[in-house]
Amino acid sequence: MWPFICQFIEKLFRETIEPAVRGANNHLSTFSFTKIDIGHQPLRINGVKVYTENVDKRQIILDLQISFVGNCEIDLEIKRYFCRAGVKSIQIHGTMRVILEPLIGDMPLIGALSLFFLRKPLLEINWTGLTNLLDVPGLNGLSDTIILDIISNYLVLPNRITVPLVSEVQLAQLRFPIPKGVLRIHFIEAQDLEGKDTYLKGIVKGKSDPYGIIRVGNQIFQSKVIKENLNPKWNEVYEALVYEHPGQELEIELFDEDPDKDDFLGSLMIDLIEVEKERLLDEWFTLDEVSKGKLHLKLEWLTLMPTAENLDKVLTSIRADKDQANDGLSSALLILYLDSARNLPHNPLEFNPDGLKKAAVQKALKSGKKINSNPNPLVLLSVGHKAQESKIRYKTNEPVWEENFTFFVHNPKRQDLEVEVRDEQHQCSLGNFKLPLSQLLESEDLTMHQRFHLSNSGPNSTINMKIALRVLSLEKQARSPDHQHSAQVKRSSLSKDARKSSFKPQVPVSPPADSNKPVPASPVTDSDKKTDVAEKSQPPNASPQWPTDLSRSSSSLHASNFTYSPSHLSVKEPTPSIASDISLPIATQELRQRLRQLENGTTLGQSPLGQIQLTIRHSSQRNKLIVVVHSCRNLIAFSEEGSDPYVRMYLLPDKRRSGRRKTHVSKKTLNPVFDQIFDFSVSLPEVQRRTLDVAVKNSGGFLSKDKGLLGKLLIPLASEELAKGWTQWYDLTEDGTRPHGAS
Length: 743
Hints:
Strand content: 35-45%
Mean pLDDT: 76
Distance between the termini: 50 Å
Organism: Apteryx owenii (Little spotted kiwi)
Number of strands: 38
Domain C2: 165-285, 310-456, 608-730
Oligomer: single chain
Largest sheet: 8 strands, antiparallel
Structural class: mainly beta
Family: Belongs to the extended synaptotagmin family.
Shape: globular
Helix content: 10-25%
Pfam families: C2, SMP_LBD
Number of helices: 12
Low-confidence stretches: 352-358, 477-486, 491-571, 580-596, 598-604, 701-706
C-alpha cells in the first residue's frame, strides 16, 4: 500500500497544505512545494491492541504502535523572497488510535474511520535551509522547536482525521463529538522531594524550586514555582477534557526550576479508567524514576449530563450560586459545531459603516480596488472572558467551516455565548448575535441546531450552528475515608530523557497562578480572575497558536484556556489555577478587595501592572534585531472605560527619536493585541551589549510625561539564545526592573 499512501500524501500537500499556507499571510502568497518524495521506506506497525472492555458495541477500537523512519525529500520555495528550504528526513514514533464506528447493518459494515494520536508522538525532522525560511516576514517569530510542537499537537486529540464511508446523515454524530468526561485535577502538594540545588561545588545539598507539568492528551498545565521547598504546597485546580479514556492517562512530571536546565524530580502516570470507576480519588502517590518523593492529588471524574435537573446542586457545590463571577470551577460544558454562514454582506460598509478602519478604506481607494469584493470571514466565539477563533475562509460570503469548539462554563444561568463574524481582510464586523445560555437550559436535551439570524448584517445573513450544554456531575458519592483504594499507577514506556525532550518544554503561555495558601478542609471558596477576551485564550482542546500573523490560519480548537490554547510557545510559564484553595475568610476578603482595586483581573501579588508578550530574535542574515510585540494583558485602567495603550521601544543607550519604535494605539482595552513586527539594525556582538527599553503607555496622558505610563520593562540582550530567539510573557513594573519571582 505504501506507494498509494505516498500518492495520497502528495495530493494532501499540494491541494490542502499549499493553498492554506499561501492564504495564511501576504508574505507567503508565492509559497509552493517544488518536490514531494516521501521515500521508499514504508511505515511500520510494531504492534496492535484491540479493546474488548469499556467500548461501545457499535465500535471497534485499535491502538497501533507505529514507527516511521523515512529518507524523504520535500522541497519548498517562496519566490517573492528567493527562499528555498526543505526536509531531508522524518522520524515519527507513537501510538495511533484507529476507531471504526459506527458499525452498521449494511455494507461496508463500517460507517467511518477515525485516526488520531492519544498523546504527542515523538517527532524529529531534519531540515535544510531552515534559517532562510525563518527570516521570511511572517515566520520570523518561529523556531524549529515551536514548528515541531505545532505539528505534533495537530496529530493529538481532539484533532482527528475522519474518513466517511457512508452517507452524511449517519455521520452527523461523528461531526459533533461529545467528550467522555471532564477530569478535575486538584494539584495540592508534595513531600520529601529530592534537593537538586547544591552549594560549595556540590558538597552541600540544598533545596529545590519545584513545579509540576500536568498533561491529559494535548492539554498541558503548568503549576507555579515554589521557591526553596522540598515539601511544596501548590493548591491549584485544573480541568481537562477526556475524549478517549481507554488507554488515556493523566501524566504528571515534577521539575526543579534552574536558570539553565531544569532538574527532573519524578513522574506519575494514572490510568483514567480507574478515576472514572472511583469518581473521586484523594490520595498520596509515590513518584516514579526517583529515589524518594510523594505527590498529593485529588481527582474528580465529572460526567456530562444532558439534563439540567442537577444544575442547582452543582452550582451550590462550586459556590457559583452566590458569586457573580464568570470564572471559577465549571458547572457545565458548552459544545459547539460551527457549520456555515449564508448571505454575508459583500460590502462591509453597507451594514457596518463604522466597523471598517479608515486606513483600510483609504488604502483600498488609493489602490483602485473595489471594497465590495467578497470578504474573508472568520468567527469569533466567546463565553465570559474566554474566546476562540475559527479558521479563515477566503473570498466568500457563503463560508463553510465545519469546526468544533468547547467552552467550560461557570454558571449557564447568567452567562451568554457571543458570536461575531468578522472580515479578516478589512478588519471589520460582518454581523453578530448573542445567545443567553439559559435558553439552552429550556431546550430539549439542552441542544439547539438551527440557523441563527445575524444582527448588524445583511437582511438574510444567517449562521448555522449546533450547540449543546452538558451539566458536569460527580454522580457517585465519595468513598468513606477508611476505604482503602489505590489508583492504578502506570510506568511510562518512554525513557526519562526521551519523555522530557518531547514533553517538558512546550507549555501554554498563561498568567501566573495564585499565591501559596494553606490547604483547606472545605471546598474551594474563591477563584482567580482569568484573562480577557482580547488575550484570545483558548480552551484545553486548542491548537497551538503561532506567534505571528500565521495564527490566523490555524484552527482554533483551546488548547487550554489557544484554551485560546491554549498559545503554545516554548517558554515556561504557569497555567492559571481555575480556583485556589483558600479557606481563610480574611485571605478571601483581601483577594477580592485587591482585585476590585486593580480592576484588571490579575492574581493577587502577581504582576500588578500586567504583562507584555514579546518575541525577540537576532537575524544574522539581515543583521537586525527583530522584536514582535504580540499583546498585553491585565493592564491597569486609567478610567472607567479602561485604557488606550500602545507600546514604545528604544534599544539603549540610543534614545534618539529615530531609534524609537511605536505600535498603534488600542482603544479602551486592558488586554490589547498588537502583533506588530519591528527591527533595529545592529550586529549580534553589538546587540549583546545593549538593553531593550519597553514601555506601555496610555495615549490619553499627554499633559504629563509620566501620567500616561502603564508599565515598563528593561531586557538585557546578553543572551546566547538571541540568534535562536524566544517568545515570552514579561511582568511590567514601575521602573522596568525585574520583580522578585518574575517569569
